[in-house]
Amino acid sequence: MSSLIPKEIPKEISPSGVEHLNLRLQGGGCPSGTVPIRRTTKEDLIRWKSFSNSSGNINVYIPGETRVAGYQLKEPNGRYHGASADLTVHTPRLLTSKQYSGALMWVERGVDIIEFGWHVNPKLYGDNETHIFGYWTADWSLKTGCFNHLCNGFVQVSKSLALGQIFTVPPITEGHMPVVPMFLYQNTYSKNWIIACGEGKMFEAIGYWPPELFNSIKDFAPLVGWRGEVYAPQGELAPEMGTGHFPQNYDAGRQYQSVASFRQI
């Protein structure tokens, strides 16, 4: 496995006023030879069934309204092999337990999509905490794909970072914004789509989706993007995105300390 997943990515210079979070599980994680996977409970199954669509994919919310704000690179002849960014991490306030809010990066080609980021999603986890998540589909979420480990596909390799685990988000104080470097990239040799967090010595790969899961994203993706995303059922006001604040009187230095953002893209 070590030959397929790099152990460290060169450290980049981050803007002042950021606080990189240590996401690793307490105690160093699981024993050698084991990996952490969030336990599925009876209550989880009941919640997931309540918002599954007719195809059986429990990860599609219908009906309702999804709103996004972000940026994407899409070129007819583009051959992208991943995306990365420093994501500010927050715990957006939801108005009901049927809403969600988060931030993510994604790669896409045809009907194949991979997403990686954080979200607050009570229907998925049964709480209002901020969780790290991954998502994949090979048919625009009609019959394939899922969040985290809810179906076969994602291969967990880290013993101290896990999809679905809770981010402990510290309060935002003057001059400090919680940030997590996140990576979604394709290995040149194995063609696995790998996700990782951290920088420098704290960099760690969480795991990967093998290329056999997909139809058209096996070798590259013509589209990569970064976005904030919120969802609300029909008739409900949309929840907060990020901090819930808009930039005011643009000042690059101060914006880092008051609004959600993707940095070092």
Write structural notes for this entry:
The model is unreliable at 1-19 and 53-59 (pLDDT under 50). Helix content is 6%, strand content 32%. The protein has one domain (18-263). It is mainly beta and 265 residues long. It is globular. 37% of the residues are buried. The strands form 2 sheets. Strands 1, 3, 8, 10, 11, 12 and 14 form a 7-stranded mixed β-sheet that branches. The protein is built from 3 helices and 14 strands. It has helices spanning 42-50, 122-125, 252-255, and strands at 18-20, 65-74, 82-88, 100-109, 112-120, 130-137, 146-147, 155-156, 166-167, 177-186, 193-197, 204-209, 223-232, 262-263. This is Neprosin PEP catalytic domain-containing protein. It comes from Protea cynaroides. InterPro entries: Glutamic_endopeptidase, Neprosin.
Identify the notable features of this structure and list them briefly.
265 residues; mainly beta; seven-stranded mixed β-sheet; 3 helices; 6% helix; globular; disordered N terminus
First and last CA, distance: 27 Å
Q: State the major sheet.
A: 7 strands, mixed
- Categorize the overall geometry: globular
Mean pLDDT score:
76
Which runs of at least 5 residues are low in confidence (pLDDT < 50)?
1-19, 53-59
Q: How large is the count of helical segments?
A: 3
Protein name: Neprosin PEP catalytic domain-containing protein
Domain Neprosin PEP catalytic: 61-265
Pfam families: Neprosin
